[in-house]
Design goal:
The protein is α/β, with parallel strands linked by helices. The chain is 37% helix and 22% strand. The protein has eight helices and eight strands; from the N terminus they run βαβαβαβαβαβαβαβα. The chain has an eight-stranded mixed sheet with strand order 3-2-1-4-5-6-7-8, sandwiched between helices. The longest helix has 12 residues.
């Protein structure tokens, strides 16, 4: 069992917290909104963004980014794409060098036209980057309906490690080394 930080307490961040918790990992979910933190911790529900879905036991929410990053084997990054730069800039001082980060956000940054991998290279230069993308929906993932996603990573050893940690029979992860193509495809899907 690994410790996984999930940065972003929206619907998809909460759904990804469910995925990794079902895999037996210790999960700390960072949310900007105090009402999300309170709801997850007291009701096992994200009543703000994923109302009506009971979360697996053991997901702990926090408003402290350092608490979500500290000791994490890897971090799932799930803020909206237009907030990725600001969120990861705040995360940077709390992330240990070499920690893998997986962007689960689809989009191109307004103004710079940067893909999320480029934003992460700028803001988290000490991290090892992977991209998760695919035609998936937060509410379906959260209630454990079958889904298939692509995990793109330039480092094949890291890709396999992340696939084994995240994937399951109901959340199928397909590895790719096409980091740019997976991001462009995710943007086009949206």
């Amino acid at each position: 069992m690994a410790r996984i930080g999930v940065i972003g307490g929206g619907a998809f961040g909460t759904a990804m917290a469910c995925v990794v918790r079902r895999q037996g990992h210790e999960v700390v979910l960072w949310a900007r909104e105090p009402e999300v933190v309170g709801s997850v911790n007291s009701k096992r529900e994200n009543a703000v963004f994923l109302r009506g879905v009971t979360l697996p036991e053991g997901i702990v929410a926090t408003g402290e980014m350092a608490a979500a990053a500290r000791g994490s084997e890897f971090v799932l990054l799930v803020p909206p794409a237009q907030h990725m730069r600001a969120v990861t800039a705040s995360l940077q001082p709390h992330l240990a060098a070499g920690t893998p980060v997986v962007s689960c956000s689809k989009g191109i940054e307004r103004g710079s036209c940067a893909l999320m991998s480029q934003v992460l290279a700028d803001t988290l230069p000490q991290a090892r980057i992977a991209i998760l993308s695919g035609p998936s929906f937060a509410a379906e993932i959260a209630i454990d309906l079958p889904a298939g996603v692509t995990l793109a990573c330039a480092d094949p050893v890291l890709g396999v490690r992340l696939e084994e940690a995240i994937g399951s029979a109901r959340f199928r992860v397909y590895l790719s080394d096409d980091v740019i193509g997976s991001q462009v495809s995710g943007v086009m899907k949206n």
